[in-house]
Specification:
Elements (H helix, E strand, L loop, with lengths): L5 H43 L4 H37 L2 H7 L8 H39 L10 E3 L2 E9 L4 E9 L6 E13 L4 E13 L10 E13 L1 H4 L13 H12 L12 H13 L3 H13 L6 H28 L5 H22 L7 H16 L5 H11 L1
Antiparallel strand pairs: 1-2, 2-3, 3-4, 4-5, 5-6
Amino acid sequence: MLGLRTAPRTLWRYVAREVLAYSGLALLGTTGILLAHNLTRRAGGLVEVGITFSDLIQVGGALALVVVSYAAPISFLFGVLFATLRLSSDSEMTAMRTCGLGPGALVAPTLALGLVFSLATAYVMIEVEHQARHDVRATIRDAVIRGGFIEAHSFQRLGDRVIYVDRHDAERRQLEGVLIEDRSNGRPFILVSARGRYEIDEAAEEIRFSLTDGDIHLPPGRSETDRYRRISFETLDYPVQLSQIVGDLLRPVRPKQMSLAELREVVTRAAAGDTLSGLHERNPVAYTLEAHRRFALPWAPALFALLAVPLGSIRARSPGAVALLLCLLTAAGYYLLGQFGQILAEREQVPPALAVWAPNALFGLLAAALLWRSRSPGGLSLRLGLRRRGKRTSERAAPVPLPERRAEERGGA
């Protein structure tokens, strides 16, 4: 039996080793899934702008820093749930009770680890995340500026357009033998030009082609009156919006790409009557929500630590499956509640601070209630009820000793 002094230290090391091992594996898997989802969703646009393999590595590294702020709390929750469920399933929790250590003894080490995860998440969200988003935007912008989206003697797709050139001078941005097929509008057309050049307008977020000595070919439409047309031109300005190629990656600066100082500056400007022109969001509530989010969400690992200990004290035949199910339900409830509050705040139905901090308050109360119920010898009410019912059944089914049974038979006879 462990001594009173050595038990907490041994228990802390044991719990830390178990939780960190499972949390680390879950962090690798969750980060990989979220990173793959983000990259595959943007893969088409990234290839179309001519991004290189080194650029892709930079984008992947920056996106990994972004998704880790969401993956770390969920992974830590799974680690605590799996560790505590395994302790209960292997009867190690029963052995702890024989040493005078109930489930409450797991709260201190898991909460300490949760605070460490919370501090790490806070650092990423406050100091790293917005800079990583800036790095993604800068890498894609550089790929567009150096003209990687155009390659001579090759058909390149730009959104709903296909472009082909005979010669491309990337330094001077000059083109020769240009052919563009445009299907972005209701009636497609083909544009042919002897020469031209292009410019990147970052303010307007577009690629502007200046073409000379060419023709526009309009094929017949569905209507009988829409016949084949050929329109010649000496000069033609042909713009292509970058948003049609890479989505919203190069849109004006968004709240999540700003530092705390920039967010507060925007809120001050909006309070002074500024229309916030040139920014992605014109509603100042979005910037207030983002400022609160960077301080509220990092508390999630600490809250999950308090919540996972009583939930993990339930015995289960498959700890991994139960841990995964409880993790998904808990994380989904927490983040969906925050998303719902954000929608209400944007509609000005609740204050932004209440919308962001309400999930923390509700989950804190839920964790406190479950911890209070788990203080009883039987743990949660579900386990306690099962134990009592099994005990009464065993008492009713107990056999009558043989001498007493024979005495009762003689008396009856």
